[in-house]
Every structure is written in structure tokens, then in C-alpha cells.
Amino acid sequence: MGFAQNRTAPVVNTRSGPVRGVTEDGLAVFKGVPYAAPPVGPLRWRPAQPHPGWSGTLDATEYGFGSPQAVREGDPVLGGHGSPPFDEDCLTLNIWTPGTDDARRPVLVWIHGGAFISGSGAMPNYSGETFARNGDLVVVNLNYRLGPLGLLSFAADAPEASEGSDGCGNVWLTDQLAALRWVRDNIAAFGGDPGSVTVAGQSAGALSTAALAGHAGDRLFRRAVLQSVPLAMPLATPAESRARTAAYLEIVGVEDEDELRTLPWPRLVEATAGLLAATVEWGHWTAPFMPVLDSRTAPRLPALNLLDGPGADIDVLVGWTGEESAFTFALGETYVSATKGQVLRRARDSFGDGAAEAYAAYEAARPGARPVDVLVDLSTDELFRKPTLAFAEARAVRRRPVWTYEFAFPTPAHDGRLGAPHCLDLPFVFDNFDKWSHAPFLAGMDTRIRDGLARTMHQAWISFVGTGDPNHPAMPRWDRYDGPSRTTMRFDTVTKAVPHIAPH
Question: Which of 67, 247, 407, 423 would you label with 18, given CA atoms 20 to 30 Å apart?
């Protein structure tokens, strides 16, 4: 970390010490601000610890290091997700604010996705400038430990263990909690209201948001946005997590945790590919590392936090894209050339003896469907659409506020084979297509329709962050999801409220 000399840049006093940012297009921006101690040396695989602070004025004009990860280049959907520099000293956050005053603006905290193995707050895709400028919001995004450095589990889940003890299998979650506590304690100095915080995320970031709701007793946030949250993806039990850690140790070629601690992080990241290969299942979305249910950080499934758990009173906006699983299955030759028999065998994992009937129903719902199309729709329903609707139904029964949406605007990229895949809603929600020029899945869109839809979605998210209600004058009425109407907003070429939407 460095210390700034430019006395004209914005300076804010945090509890750890003063930070000096930069003014960018009328916004005060602070980058690479530490929110916890560097998790290096003896703090590797330890829950996030308080930062010791600094004595001078911290230069917060450059992004901090991203969490160590493999670099993904040439991805036919996103083009890539996460880029160097990486380092274990990665627990920093970034802030965009219209003013370092006492305006007490609503706060949006964004948690990036990436299957818990990729992504960072430094990615231009997740820049908070559009929300800060267009919504008069204070926006925060953050880095957290990923992959083997964030999700390996070594110790038994002892009932007497505490969140701050060794052996936690969810150190990634302790990072995020530390960041939210930093926001609670410091955001007023950046013009934000610590009593009006919305946590939002997509994919793994959405699952993280639901997991964080288990700590709502700390009053860390009052609203949640869950984009493409894989609610049907089971969290590992402590025993399953330790078994996966044992498999990882074998791949790396070490005997135990002590030996693993001596290895440099590039060696740890390199072994992730081996674990992914060992855990892959045909026709299933799989991840090499999974969050673990434990008594310290995540004692229940994330969705339950927002039903009868500590986060039951949090306002929720939740939704999915029309063809989520096209992200994984629609372009790879392994799946494009799949036979009906292969997909039927995959369907038996979900439907048992009813697999043939289910296949026929999916086939009928999409005229001309190929086996890969059936797989995409089946997987989308199973992981995203069906559990999201069940979650909304459960919230409605409990009279808890929830708004649901489906992003159904298809991309013409790759001859239209993707439909509306996982992640396609992101540039619309952020309304920042200039930051996604590297992403192949945006190719060929009618910019007039694209930009109009982005303005509608972006303003709905701004409204929700500010008031707890996504409605605004430039879109159709969006009612809460409830038992009688079961209203879901469908964002498409024509955006409209759809009653009684159902899985395929």
C-alpha cells in the first residue's frame, strides 16, 4: 500500500486511518481500501481478521490485487472473467460516491459471481459508477478469497467452535462479513447511510448474499438482490467438504494442511483444474469448491435465512435468465452433439422413472428442440427457475416482500443458440455495455432495443435500492409476488408483468 501526496483529491477518515481517492467524472472514487488484515502467512485459511490500520494517508487510487485464480481467456460467452494482478493480500473494497458529505445516501454493495473460483471487484464490468451517478447511491464492491484459498476445509465442525476459530470451511464468507461490517462502520463518511444497505450479487454472489442474510442479527443490510441464484445447488456437509479437501491434497501431492501451507499460491490455483476434472458430471453444473454447512458461519441452507431465519425481514428482489444453462451447455461440442439417449440418462438423475415423460414435455415446450436444448431447459428449471419460484412462493405465504423477474431477452450471438444465458442480464442491470466490449455474447444486438431495456432494468434496481420497491414510471406496474397473482416481471423486447409463470 502507498501513501498519496495530491492534496486536492478527496480524503475520508475511516476507522483504520485516512484514505485519499480520486475524482472521476464527478464521482469520488476510492479503490483498494483494505477492510481486513492480509490473509497471508499464519492467516492463510483463517477467518478474516481486523486490519491493524495505518498511520499516514492511504493512497486509494488504484485497485487492489484480485484473489488468486486461473485466468480465463477466449471464453465464447463472457470472453473472460478476472485478470491479473493476483495476490493473497486481496481483501480490499472499492467505493463510488457522488459526495463525501452527510447526505446519507442509500448504499449498494455488489458481490461478484464466478463459481467461487473467478472474478474481482476490479473488473470494469462491476464498476459502481453507473449506479452511483444515475441513482445518487454509494456503491461498494469487494474482493474475497476464492478457490482453494477461500473454500478448503480442514477441521471437524465442532459445536463449540466459533466463527473466529481455525478450521472454518467458509473463510470466503468471513471475508464478506468483514466487508459488510466495514461498510456499517465507515460508509457514513463516504456519504452513505449504514441503515439503508442493499447487498446484491449474481450467481455465486447471489448465493453469498443469501448466506450473509444468516447474519442479519448484526443489521448489516435491509435489502437483497439475488440474480441467477442457484438455490438448488446443495452446500457440502462438513464431511463432504473434508473429503473434497483430501482429494485436493492428493492432487497437489502433499500429506496434510501443514505441508500445504508451505506452497506458493500459484501451485494451489494450478491444482484447481485437477479437482474440477475429478468432480465433473456429464450434464450437471459442477464446481470444484463448494461452500460448506457449518455451525459457525453457515448453519442452514442460504434460502432458509430469508424465510424463517435471521434475514426473514429483508426485502428481496430475485430472478433468473430464460436459458441460464446455455452458458455451460449450448456451445460445447460435447453437448451440442449429445443424443437423446444421453440426455434421457441425465434426466433420470432428476426424474427417475419419469425421465421419458419429462423429456417429451420439454421437447413439446420448445418446437424443434434438439437434445441439447432439452438439457438446457431441464437444467435451467432444476437449478434456477423452479427453486426460485418455490422460494418466492414460500416468502409470499409468510407475507414477506419479494419481487420476481425473468430476463428473457435473447442474444443473437452464436446464431441465437444461447437464448438468454447466465450472466446476460448483468450489462443490462449495470447499463454499462461499454465495459463489456470483450464479451462475445453481446454481439449483434439491436442497440436501440438493448439500451431501452437496460434503462428500464437499471432504474428498477436503483428504485429498489433506494426505496425497497422496484417500480418506476418508465415501466409497467411490478407487483410483489403473492399467492393470488404470482406476478413475475418478464424483461424482454416487450417488458411486461406475467401472472402464474411456471417451470417448463
Answer: 67
What pairs with residue 447 in β-bridges? none
**Closest to 22 (Cα-Cα) out of 100, 123, 101, 119:** 100
The one catalytic residue in 196, 203, 228, 379 is 203
Pick 287 or 189 by higher pLDDT: 189
Q: Which residues pair with 19 in a beta bridge?
A: 12, 58
| Burial (CB count within 10 angstroms: exposed 0-12, middle 13-18, buried 19+), residue 401 | middle
Residue 425: closest CA among 417, 438, 414, 439:
439
Q: Catalytic: which of 323, 324, 382, 406?
A: 324
- Residue 504 is predicted with a pLDDT of 52
Burial state string for 467-499 with b = 16 or more CB within 10 A and e = fewer than 16: ebebbbeebeebebbbeeebbbbbbbeebebee
Q: What is the DSSP letter of 381?
A: I
Task: Tell the burial category of 5 from Cβ atoms under 10 Å away from its Cβ (0-12, 13-18, 19+).
Answer: exposed
Q: Decide: 297 and 381 in contact? Cβ < 8 Å.
A: no
Q: What is the chain's alpha carbon radius of gyration, rounded to the nearest angstrom?
A: 22
225: CB partners within 8 A, 6+ apart: 198, 199, 200, 201, 206, 209, 316, 317, 318, 461, 464, 465
The string of pLDDT tens digits covering residues 399-417 is: 999 999 999 999 999 999 9
Nearest CA to 213 out of 228, 203, 202, 226 is that of: 226
3-state secondary structure of 416: helix
Tell me how far apart the alpha carbons of residues 279 and 253 are, in angstroms, rounded to a whole number.
Answer: 18
Residue 303: closest CA among 422, 379, 383, 377: 383
Decide if 324 is catalytic: yes
The angle subtended at Cα 344 by Cα 341 and Cα 347, nearest 5°, is: 160
Single out the catalytic residue among 51, 112, 215, 422. 422
* Coil, strand or helix at 87: coil
- 273-299 confidence digits (pLDDT tens): 999 898 889 999 988 999 999 888 999
Region of 333 please: left (phi>0), alpha (psi -120 to 50) or beta: alpha
Residue with cell 479503490: 31
* Cis amide linkage into residue 85, ω under 30° from 0: yes
Active site residue 203: yes
Q: Is position 284 annotated as part of the catalytic site? A: no
Assigned C-alpha cell, 279? 468432480
Q: What is the pLDDT of residues 82-117, one digit of tens each?
A: 889 999 999 999 999 999 999 999 999 999 999 999
H/E run at residue 58: strand 58-59
Question: Both ends of the chain: CA-CA distance in Å?
Answer: 52
DSSP state letter for 474: T
C-alpha–C-alpha distance, residues 120 and 206, integer Å = 15
